[in-house]
Each structure stands twice: as C-alpha cells, then as structure tokens.
Design brief:
This protein has 3 helices and no strands. It is an all-alpha fold.
Length: 74
C-alpha cells in the first residue's frame, strides 16, 4: 500500500482530467469499495454479537468494580 497521503482534491483533479467515458468505471469502483467496507463492518458487527452472546452464556458474574480493577481504572 502506498503511504503517500492522497487528498480528496487530488482525486477530484484526476477525475477532471479523465475522459467522461471512464466516469462510470470510476463510479463502479467507488460503489465496490463502499460495498466492501459495509460488508467488513457487518462482519465485524456479527463477530462482536457472537462474542457478546458467548460471554453472556458463560456462568458466573463479574461486577463492574472487578472489571474496573482489571482494566486499571480504579
């Protein structure tokens, strides 16, 4: 991955230089990236829900005080 920062203005400048007949391909790629991002976020949400359900199914109870102590918040 290129570590060079790319700004929105730089992208728009390049889009302005691109022939109009390629704009649909650019839009298709943008929509693909958005779909991919949404899919990844949905997958992460699903994993979080699965982890939460597994934690709730475990026996026992941990008080908020114990959690805070374990995290070094008290």
């Amino acid at each position: 991955r290129n570590t060079k920062m790319v700004s929105k203005d730089f992208i728009l400048q390049n889009l302005d230089q691109l022939p109009e007949d390629l704009w649909q391909e650019v839009l298709d790629f943008i929509l693909f990236l958005r779909h991919k991002q949404e899919k990844n976020e949905a997958s992460e949400d699903s994993e979080d829900i699965t982890d939460a359900k597994a934690a709730l199914a475990e026996p026992g109870f941990i008080s908020l005080t114990e959690v805070k102590q374990e995290l070094g918040l008290q």
